[in-house]
TrEMBL record:
Residues 76-177 form the Rieske domain. Keywords: 2Fe-2S, Iron, Iron-sulfur, Metal-binding. The keyword Ion transport does not apply. Its cofactor is [2Fe-2S] cluster. It comes from the Eukaryota. Transmembrane segments: none annotated. It comes from Durusdinium trenchii. The keyword Iron-sulfur applies. This is Cholesterol 7-desaturase nvd (Protein neverland) (Nvd protein) (Nvd-Xl).
Amino acid sequence: MAMEVAFLAPSVSQPAVAQHMGTAPGPQPSSGFGMKLAAGVCSAAAAVGLASSRKRSKTAARYTTQTILPSLAWIKTGVKASELQPTELKALTLAGNDVLIGKTEAGALFCVGNLCPHIGTPMSEGADVIGDVIVCPLHGSSFKVTTGELIDWCVSPPIIGPLTGLIVDKKNLLIFECRQGGFLGSGEVEVLVDTNAKKAYEAGYWKGLLDAQGKDDGTYY
Ligand code: FES
């Protein structure tokens, strides 16, 4: 069973907050018991005012927990292959997918996921390309850019890197098909991505959340 989710966003009026904080303009009591009494009445009235002025309204954002199927499409990157030097990398977000296009040392074009499968560090923040292998800048995990195959997992810095590697299952790097568009490959680099990837991720998130509360069909876990 899929369901629709909408946020409830509380909205509180500014005058009510000012009143509650004691910053509302108006006559102030002068001293002693009278002042305390007035302050008490004021405070109670402010609390009532705050509660009554708290409104709940629905935002336009809606999410679903239904299964979202992939929808693949070639997306232009705005980058020509001739603009990339060997070992150069360029990070892009295409239809919600974080990708990294680049060239191997031999000059072959490739496209991989930009987020390291270890803990999600962007490879674009200093990854090295050595031959046809990309090396994560944080803990040195390395992957073949043509297949995404894991070569080394969390090898640096000594002791700390391998320790961090123990807490996450080893994974390969995502890879994406890419090509040079235009006549005889003279145009922009294009990447084949799932244009539903973001929607599917959000649906999975809401399904997990609602299943944990017993409000969906319980198939997430
Ligand atoms: S984040 Fe890439 S190896 Fe740790």
